[in-house]
Design goal:
Elements: E1 7-18, E2 25-36, E3 40-44, H1 51-58, E4 66-71, E5 74-75, H2 78-86, E6 88-91, H3 105-116, H4 122-135, H5 140-143, H6 153-165, E7 171-175, H7 183-199, E8 204-208, H8 212-218, E9 221-226, E10 229-235, H9 236-241, H10 246-254
Parallel strand pairs: 3-8, 3-9, 6-7, 7-8
Antiparallel strand pairs: 1-2, 1-4, 4-5, 9-10
Helix pairs in contact: 3-4, 3-6, 4-6, 6-7
Length: about 260
């Protein structure tokens, strides 16, 4: 399969503004980005660099003011945009935002299946939920019947990851998934992402992170954003070992890996 055939998402010359009048400001400048099946792309940069805006535009959660996005070779609009939303999994910084406090973990994890496959038998849903919890090292017999309040931050994030992958999405977006998690719990979350990559080799992952230790372990390629512009991109090992841009060098100097 050729490079273009494995292309999942492609953004070309993306630009985005917020505000109006004299308060109008540009937050993305002529950004090009590509994501292939089975690849983990890390988008890194400081606060306000445009990381979250870029990923929201790529997933159709916001519209670019200029440029274009394609999903599996088709323009991201109409049915294609709906397909992408249905075939995407999202993991955010605060896992408790993804888990309804009134629902047990098993119900929260299984919700995407009930939305996308209303004809599935309850047993089939329960089986898939158990597989997803197992993949993130949460014993279904111990955790499926717990409420979010009964979980540590790291356990809640792994439950949120299970929810994001339970329907085996084509694209998984993880937006700063470890920034609110303690160091010990981060190891288990790293292991969870590695297990997902091994089990779902065609799943494309976008990892937004300022943690270069996480990036070093998980990402195949890095895209560095600074003030809404791509200042550097390439294979992870090369970017980390041979950064060309001064901004990238400063990020690496400030990081602990």
């Amino acid at each position: 399969m050729g490079d273009d055939e494995r292309m999942v998402l492609e953004g070309r010359s993306l630009a985005k503004w917020y505000g109006a009048g004299r308060h109008r400001r540009q937050v993305l400048f002529d950004v090009d980005v590509r994501l292939h099946a089975g690849e983990c792309l890390a988008v890194i940069g400081g606060s306000g660099s445009g990381k979250t805006t870029l990923t929201r535009v790529l997933l159709g959660l916001e519209r670019a003011d200029d440029g274009s996005v394609e999903y599996c070779g088709k323009p991201l609009r109409g049915d294609v945009a709906r397909d992408l939303r249905a075939q995407s999994g999202l993991v955010f910084q605060n896992p408790f935002d993804s888990l309804d406090p009134r629902w047990r973990v098993g119900r929260s994890v299984g919700e995407p299946l009930r939305l996308h496959h209303p004809d599935w038998l309850r047993e089939h849903v329960a089986e898939r939920v158990a597989e997803a919890l197992d993949m993130v090292s949460l014993d279904p017999e111990m955790f499926a019947d717990r409420f979010p309040i009964d979980l540590s931050g790291g356990q809640a994030q792994r439950a949120a990851i299970a929810r994001a992958i339970v329907d085996k999405p084509k694209v998984l977006l993880a937006d700063e998934p470890m920034s609110a998690i303690d160091v010990a719990a981060r190891v288990r979350i790293l292991e969870s992402f590695e297990a997902i990559r091994n089990a779902e080799p065609d799943m494309a992952i976008i990892m937004v992170s300022h943690d270069l230790g996480v990036v070093q372990h998980l990402a195949d390629r890095i895209l560095v954003l600074h003030d809404g512009r791509v200042v550097e991109s390439g294979p992870t090992e090369w970017i980390l070992a041979h950064p060309r841009d001064e901004y990238t060098k400063r990020l690496l100097q400030a990081a602990t890996m």
